[in-house]
Amino acid sequence: MMAVPGPVRRLFGAFPLETRPAIAVDNKEVQEAGSPLTLYVYNLSDDGVCTDPEGLECQAVFRQNGQKPLVLTSSLHVCSKGRLPYMVERQRDKVRVYNEAKSIDGNVVKQGQVYLTLIKVALGDAWKMTLLDPENEQVKRQLYGCNREPESLRFFASKEITQLFLTQLESRHAPFVNHCRSWLFNWKAPLVETTCAEVMEQADECLDVFETLLDDRQFLHEDQIGREDIMLFSYIYLITTYLDQSPLNDLVQKRPSLVAHSKNVYKALFNL
To answer: One Pfam match, by short name (predicted)?
Structure first.
C-alpha cells in the first residue's frame, strides 16, 4: 500500500477539494459479458483514444475491466447534464445513464480517493487553465470537438466549453473566474497571471508526489494498474500529446518517469 508523503498534506491544505456524489449503478450488471454499453465523449483521436481527461479515464477503466464499449463522439447540445462523458447501458427494458468513472469501477479505498482527488483538482485545474489561454483556442476546439460543429455554431460551442471550465474552477478561483466573465477581460492581467502561476505550482507539487510514489516501478501498484494509474495517465498522456508547447508540459517533461508511466499504461490498455 502506498504511504502518504508529506507534500500531499501540505498541498491539500492549500485549496478546498472538489467533490461530486457518485451516480448509483449496479456494477455487476455493467460488467456482464455482452452488455450493450455506449460511451459518449467530446472527440476521438485517429487511433480511437478519447481526447479529454474524463472521457479517457472512463475509456481506460472499461478497458481495464476487459470491456470495449461503443465509443461515440457527441456534443453538449445533446447531453442533458451539460457535460461529457456519459455512458448508457441498455438491458432489456432498462436504460442506465451515468457519467463518472467511479460509477463503473465501484468504490475506491479512502487513501486511493485522496490521490484521485489530488490529480483531479491539481492537474485538472492546470489542464483547464492551459486551454483557457487564448493561444490554445484551436487546441481546445480540437480536443472538445468544437471543430466538428457547423460553421455557424463553432464559436458558440467553444464558448460553452469555456463556460463549463469556468464553472468547474469557480469554487477555488472565484476572482479569476469573475475576471474572465467580465467585459474587461484581459488574459495578461496581473490577476490572471498570478492565478495561473499558483495553479501551475500546485500541478508541479502534484507531479512531485507521484514521481516520488512511482519511484522505479512500472505502475503505482507495482505490476498492477490501479485507478490512480489510470487517472494520472489520462492527464499525462493528453498533456504530452496535445499541449507539447505549454508550461504544463514542461513540468511533466522534467519527470521522465511519469512520461514513461503514461506510455506503460497506454501500451497495457490501448496498444494491445
So the answer is: GST_C_6
